[in-house]
Design a protein that fits this description.
The chain is mainly alpha-helical. The chain has a domain of about 35 residues. Helix content is about 80%, strand content about 0%. It is built from two helices and no strands. The longest helix is centred in the C-terminal third of the chain and has 36 residues. The N and C termini lie far apart (about 35 Å).
């Protein structure tokens, strides 16, 4: 995944892909590529959420 990608930008791109699919603004030829990109973005977002959750839990544990 790109080094400059943030959770917010990945989520925004996912929303755009979903909107394009819902509005049928992409061609059948583009669909597989968009779905593949969405899968990568979802994987990235899930990893970031898990990482953030672990970090927050660690910080909270140190405060207790």
């Amino acid at each position: 995944m790109e080094n400059h990608l943030t959770y917010e930008s990945a989520y925004a791109e996912l929303q755009q892909i979903a909107a394009d699919i819902e509005n049928e603004t992409i061609t059948v030829d583009q669909l597989a590529e968009k779905v593949k990109r969405a899968a990568l973005l979802i994987e990235y977002c899930q990893a970031r959420l898990r990482s953030t959750e672990a970090e927050v839990s660690k910080i909270i544990g140190q405060l207790e």
